[in-house]
Model the fold of this input.
Amino acid sequence: PDRSESAARRMLTGLLSHLQRTLPSPGLLLTEDDRVRLDPDRIWSDTAAFEQLSAQPSSLEQAVSLYRGPFLDGFSLSKSPEFEIWAAVERAAWERRYLEALATLVGFHTGREEFGAAIACARDYLATDELAE
Done:
């Protein structure tokens, strides 16, 4: 807030340049217009893999096996309320996707009379959303 937009952009450019030099391999960081991201063809991401796998019903079991708990659990930038708001929104969205996948699996396994697998998925659901009935 205390800096002009042009000064902030210069600082960001400097930080991105430093990051490019620090990364173990050139080209890992992609910049396009006002967007910065890691090259998805060269970096594995559990969230990207979960998103891709959960889009395919046949891969739901594999998708839910990737879930390790809340998004960025334990990571905080207390001096950045904007980050904290973004992280809370993302955390809720990823949890919802996980719960939707589990609910689908409960229905799938129940329909096939695979009750042990259905119960396991239901337990995972309840462990994540303790208020669910």
Q: What stands out?
A: The helical segments are 5-22, 46-54, 60-66, 81-111, 115-128.
